[in-house]
Amino acid sequence: MRDFSYLRANSVDAACQAAALPGAMLLAGGTTLIDLAKCGVTEPETVVDISHLKGLDTITVDDRGVTIGALARMSSVADHAEIKSRFPAVSEALWQAASAQLRNMATIGGNLMQRTRCPYFRDPANFPACNKRTPGSGCSAIGGVTRGHAVLGTSEACIATYPGDLATALVAFDATVHLGDRQVAADDFFLLPGATPHREHAIEPGEVITAISIPASAAAGRSTYLKVRDRQSYEFAAASAAVGIEFEADGRTIRDLRVALGGVATKPWRARAVEEALKGKLLEADIVKQASLLAIEGAVDHGANHYKIELAPRVVARAILKVGETA
Amino acid sequence: MTVHEIRTRQSESKRGDASDGAIFAEAVGGRLSRVDGPAKITGAAKYAVEQQLEGLSHAVLVESTIAAGKVRSIDTAAAESAPGVLLVLTPDNVLRLNTATDWLGTPPPDVPYCPLARDITFSGQHVAAVVAESFEQAVAAAALVKVSYDETPAIVDLDDPKAGDGIPVDTMTKEWGDAQAAFTAAPVRICAAYNTPREYQAPMEPHGLIAHWQGDRLTVWEPSQWLDGMARTYAEWFGVPFENVRLVSPYIGGGFGSKAFAYGYGAVAAMAAKMLGRPVKLAVTRPQTFTAYGGRAATRQTVALGADAEGRIQSIVHRGVNETSVDGMWVEPLGSVTSIMYATPNFSSRQNVVRVNTVVPGALRAPGENPSAFGIESAIDELAYEVGIDPLEIRLRNYAEQDPEVKKPWSTRQLREAFAVGAAAFGWSKRPREPRSMRDGNQLIGWGVAAGTYPVRRAYGEAMVRILTDGSVEVESSSIDMGQGTYTILAQTAAEVVGVPAENVVVKLGDSRYARAGVTGGSRLAGVMTGAVHKAATAALDELVGLAISDPNSPFHALQANTLVVSEGRIRSPRGDGPDVSIAELLGSVGREQIEAMGDTTPATWTAEDRYKNNTTITMALPHTEGDYSRHSWCAHFIEVRVDEDFGTVRVSRVVSALDSGRLYNPKLAESQWKGGIIMGIGQALLEEGIVDRRHGRIVNNNLADYLIATNADIPDIEVISVGIPDLHSSLLGGKGVGELGIVGVAPAIANAVFHATGKRVRDLPITLEKLI
């Protein structure tokens, strides 16, 4: 960790100005920034503390949906009564993320900005090659320990998994990220690595996440987040799925379906092929299982992560059937 | 705040409520809660590296980034000119240290010891260190130290083609009968390989120390399972008398075998403190806990069982391999359970060690017995299915009525009782024979059983007991409490012997100035130290009663009694006639400030040198098969797992374990230790694995987010049942080992349950989901 300057922003505008400084990074809950600074991965020249900004932690619900202030804590959002009833997948994704201590500190805006757990990314002293850290330096993960790495959305430059749970639910339900006045669809906010894995988010210098909004929908109201992992708590997903269903009036035919995958891709992964394949179909186990295989179309493994290709469709199918079968 | 202050406060707060007396008056065998608990949960307990010292400076290690080769050069210029830097240590400017005697008492070679390496034998080896005014400055400067290497190919693990078959360890060979011929001739044969990965102790409190020299006297605050052993190492490194080194370690945040020795980083800190003339703190980071000392070695075992058609074992052929480092030796005794668990007329066990580029492995809860049990207790389960009998029945059919290896009777072996009691509590008789017979929706349910054992490691101990002016009792020992309850059981022992409430006993541990003690490891401390405290307290009581009877100023002088009784802190005649005075009143009457008695269990013939060896090596310990008996703790685990059929995830849903640790000095604490071992065993079975990048020979999951230990969510209710009886062949007060027993057999019980649930036999730990989908 090297010395840095510390600025405490008094307003969103001041935070935006400070965030435009070269080498500036925002500090909210600190659970990612400080962790990565200790690893030597981030070396900010200026830390802009936005944790004291007023009015950015509110949660507003109306008929159109919910708007969550960027500084709302993960635990507050997870426990919010209307988020639990109208967006259960969002609440469940948050409850299954991280640990109680982290959820009490980490903010929703910061959660979107969390970085990958790729062990090669996190250890610059031993693994200097990392295109995400140092563009053009290479990828240490390819050919190494890849059990946790992505099978979808990878490139020759990077196979690091997007680690978050919340964003998987956000992408499934067409959430929008508010960068002050500019709004970006959550699905577009997260970038594929391609040849530029160091660019992870569609956020420009001088922009600050101020809120996230999720439109109300019948599918969001009947939704779940299913997370599969070896350890029951405090582990990243081996594979996860955010799923929501709206039925036709018959209660059996799928009118609207939302499916997104976590733990298997380089960004939160919307599985539109599964959605399209099942819309208009009856909710039957065989049909659902067959369609769920579309979730991993184009998947490429790197050896030890091959199991994710087997696992992900099963997680999707289970989540769809679970939501569909709940009255 | 010390334990004493905490406890005084407790008793004050409870004054006036007579019902509280019973809680604190508990003697040996009572369920007294941990007396150090309040200090720990309130944060009042001050751990070693939390000491505040004037002029404290901070050391940070620089570690090798290659697994094999040589350091070509170290550029320290940038680090030396960084803000706050006091010293950059490299192999070029270290103090010359001596090589120290090891724990086995091996005389050291007359070559210097350098804790910073030029020859690199593993990734993460210490190559340099930076000392600065602040921790942050030391961290920043350490990142500026530029090390260049000449790298050579590394042997990364047991599977490396360069690793070879290794070195035979002849002392591990155990043979009787003709095992190979009997196996070949047996009507039923199974043979399989069982593997365990590198595992780590992962104590909540990472390692570290503060070293402080005053002239040629060194004080080290460091979490320690062995103050005297570590003090000796520091003394020999620096060429000062043993008595000049003081180790202080009042609380330890978990050790699990990892805190018994002084390691290289300790030498670095003490050396820097000497060179700078000011105290140095060195806190090992969590990632460094994976390479600054060793975890459990990766192991491979092949177990071949030959049996008759009824499942009676005719032969066991066992071959084991564990990894060790390039320049150090660690033997994980893989045949230790294999050779004693079942009766067999023919037996062969041999073991090799294979050198790979790793830090030298070390002790982790039940070294040897733990992986050994995974092999034999999985194999006998496989044999049960092969023969077609119940896995519990096959264990009873092959029950060893005496130690099959040394052919001596067991001191006590309540294993049959453990099987019976555990099976009844678990409901084993309702178990369907066939795998995949039980299901709950997507969950396949399986039941598994396995046995465990750990030898009774006996040693000699000493303790100081004082009866103080106010009638309270003080116990002193340089042994330690790393969470297992030493403070508590020694208070109970002294309280029972002297006849005072346990709350009036203050136990002082963790300072090498106190009565000397050997290692806290191998589950020996409770047996050794309750015996020593019992002796010392008895001597103190005898002196107290002697004074009361014979001192002319004693109120009992005129009574002409032969003896007196002391209970609840008061002295009376056995018949109840005559005076009834408190200990404090008696000491006041006879004008004594205190009574002080050393007690020990050591042979009367011992010299000072013998005592020194007893406290600083393990050479004076008694073999568990010494004399007429073979002494072991025993247990049986009954475990239910639920395996998600689609996802391969395994969850332990029920554990019932019946355990024989002999007499329990404090059942509440023993149960906690057993449960702790079982919890650790669940993590070992399902989660724990040091993952090596085979291109670099480096552990890549060196943190607690990626090296998975069990969380509360992974642990169901655990029922533990004591089936032990006092075993006076094992210890003065009848206890056998507790601390390591609980983990032994958990992993095979889970693997056996997973087979029963799924029909898939997993022989490589941990049982992660991709092995089952």
TrEMBL record, chain A:
Its lineage opens with: Bacteria, Pseudomonadati, Pseudomonadota, Alphaproteobacteria, Hyphomicrobiales
Which ranges carry the FAD-binding PCMH-type domain?
1-219
Q: Does the keyword Flavoprotein apply?
A: yes
The protein's name is FAD-binding molybdopterin dehydrogenase
Note one Pfam family from the annotation.
Answer: CO_deh_flav_C
Show the GO MF annotations. FAD binding; oxidoreductase activity
Keyword line: FAD, Flavoprotein
Classification via InterPro entries: CO_DH_flav_C, CO_DH_flav_C_dom_sf, Diverse_Substr_Oxidored, FAD-bd_PCMH, FAD-bd_PCMH-like_sf, FAD-bd_PCMH_sub1, FAD-bd_PCMH_sub2, Mopterin_DH_FAD-bd
Q: Which organism is it from?
A: Mesorhizobium mediterraneum
TrEMBL record, chain B:
Name the InterPro entries on file. Answer: Ald_Oxase/Xan_DH_a/b, Ald_Oxase/Xan_DH_a/b_sf, Ald_Oxase/xanthine_DH-like, AldOxase/xan_DH_MoCoBD1, AldOxase/xan_DH_MoCoBD2, AldOxase/xan_DH_Mopterin-bd_sf
Pfam families registered for this protein in UniProt: Ald_Xan_dh_C (PF01315), MoCoBD_1 (PF02738), MoCoBD_2 (PF20256)
| Alphabetical list of SMART domains matching this protein | Ald_Xan_dh_C
Q: Which UniProt keywords apply?
A: Molybdenum, Oxidoreductase
Any GO molecular function: iron ion binding
Span of domain Aldehyde oxidase/xanthine dehydrogenase a/b hammerhead: 42-153
Put simply, this protein is called Oxidoreductase
Q: Which organism is this entry from?
A: Mesorhizobium mediterraneum
